Amino acid sequence: MSKKLTNWLAAGACCLSMASQAQEPMTRIEIDSTRPGATINRDIYGQFAEHLGRGIYGGIWVGEDSDIDNIHGFRTDVIEALRDIRVPLVRWPGGCFADEYRWRDGIGPRDARPVRVNTHWGGVPEDNAFGTHEFFELVELLGADAYVNGNLGTGNPREMAEWLEYMTGDSQSAVVEERRRNGREEPWDVAYFGVGNEAWGCGGHMRPEYYSDLYNHFATFLKTPRGSEPKFVASGGHTADTEWTDVLSKNIQRQMDGISFHFYTLPTGEWDDKGESTGFGEDQWASTLWQTLRMDEFIRNNKKVLDKNDPENEIGFYVDEWGTWYNPEEGREPGFLYQQNTLRDALVAALNFNIFHRHADRVRMTNIAQMVNVLQAMILTDGEEMVLTPTYHTYGMYKVFQDATSLPLEIGNLHSYQQGGKTLPAVSASAARGKDGQLYLSLVNLDPGAAQQVAVDVKGAEISGATGQLLTAGAMDARNTFDDPDSVEPAGYNASADSGNLVLEIPAKSVLVVSLK
User: What domains sit in the chain, N to C, each tagged with a CATH number?
Assistant: First the structure.
């Protein structure tokens, strides 16, 4: 869909909105710019790259000898696209893969690196061409920070401690000298270091008490030069579980800066038949958005536990895996987790951003799963071709919120969207003052069939208008393909206040991010 057509749809939806809601009270949003809240940490917009399918090989890394245009083996088109959305943080090497990863396999000359079998994802050979040095070159190319996940499941304390020393050490120890011989003189900066992954599942099927003991054991030996310590992340719970947060925040005595949490949005809520990525009806549109809104409840419940066990607010709550997960696409390797990405995914991302902003006091880092070619990806590739997904565009629109200061808002006369026995709010919103001093407002219209009118008032400021970007399309499963890569993309949006009153017209099934002038 062209930008011209998108603008036309937006204008038409606005007119329909005014007619259909003429008899209904208008939704009202009041933003209090006089009461700044928590900082929206830029790491909330973190990414995740696991050794899974074509997430790294072919998606990010093609090697220096590839016919695909590359920078030291990294796809030029992918690097440039990720730079444009200001990727702040990348998590690697997993995921489930992390707890079988042997870091020494991925250093030294590539032609001498051992080949392993990726038992978690497809049973395919892993030649370790992408290892520690390649990962840090990737984040440096992106201008991002590094989140490294250590192997607790099949590793041991010495192995984990030596990897951290290899990355951060500045001495003349044997491990650090090995790094220098492999071509890196200066230590790298590791922003976050995870001690295991999903210890409740693929990381070892442990009890939280047992994992807490292991964490204390391993963390005892995780040492870095003074001033270069990463934030250490404990492997926490998932979905409605709060037990892991409770046990870990009580029992871990060694260095721990945050507890991780995982939640994937499944349209059906059932792992055996999750739902399809395209061709779905309005019932699964609504159920998907309803499922993803559960994130707010899960965070609230875990925050209550942390507020009790950690009243000083020292422990962060890191949602380091989240996103949509659908049934495997027909004809593709199920273990590669490749799925198409539609307008519905863009709304899922925006709804989660608004939730994360609301809880920015504890939620200081998240990582969507995953960056390229896997699950709710930013980018899809096929040989030399690349396409940007609707989720990518949502990240681009929301980048103004990185390190912004959250602002409280109240929504009045909020309309409901009902479908298939589910009742959802028709509108989701978030407001903040950006690092540039501008006031920003994000709005999501969950209703796929009705536009919304929203009156905006800002306490402490006079608003004359709004300008920004709008993302919408004609179909619920509208998507970008290699044949039509620009079907879903943002369009410009402008609105002016009338006699001091600002009303924003939001088309059906859309995401809007504006600067309030």
Answer: 3-37+407-516 (2.60.40.1180), 94-136+146-366 (3.20.20.80)
Check: CB of residue 336 under 8 Å from CB of residue 290.
no
321 is annotated as an active-site residue: yes
321 membership: H or E segment, kind and range: strand 316-324
CA distance 187 to 428: 43
Q: Given the structure tokens 């370790």, which residue do they identify?
A: 128
Q: What is the DSSP string of 381-411?
A: EETTEEEE-HHHHHHHHHGGGTTEEEE-EEE
Model confidence over 30-78: pLDDT tens digits? 999 999 999 999 999 999 999 999 999 999 999 999 999 999 999 999 9
Q: What is the per-residue pLDDT for 254? A: 86
**Bridging pattern class, strands 231-234 and 116-118:** unpaired
Which pLDDT does position 12 carry in this prediction?
A: 42
**Residue 132: its pLDDT value, please?**
98
The one-character DSSP state at 442 is E
Positions of E strands within 409-509: 409-412, 416-419, 422-425, 427-433, 439-445, 452-459, 465-471, 491-496, 502-506
Q: Which residues of the chain have pLDDT under 50?
A: 1-23
Q: Which of 338, 324, 76, 320 is nearest to 198 (CA)?
A: 320
The reply to whether the predicted model has a pTM over 0.85 is yes
| Active-site residue flag, 282 | no
Catalytic one of 100, 126, 198, 276? 198
Per the CB < 8 A criterion, the answer to whether 95 and 52 are in contact is yes
- Measured at the CA of 399, the angle between CA 397 and CA 402, to 5 degrees, comes to 150
Return the percent helix, strand and coil in the chain, to nearest 5.
Answer: 30, 25, 45
Tokens of 269: 């809520």
Among the options 100, 321, 489, 505, which is catalytic?
A: 321
Would you call the peptide bond into 437 cis, given omega within 30 degrees of 0 as the criterion? no
Distance CA 266, CA 274 (A): 5
Residue 492's nearest CA partner among 476, 515, 463, 508 is: 515
Q: What's the confidence (pLDDT) of residue 218?
A: 98
pLDDT in the model for residue 20: 42
Give me the pLDDT at residue 16, please. Answer: 40
CA 393 to chain centre: 13
164 sits in which H/E element: helix 157-168
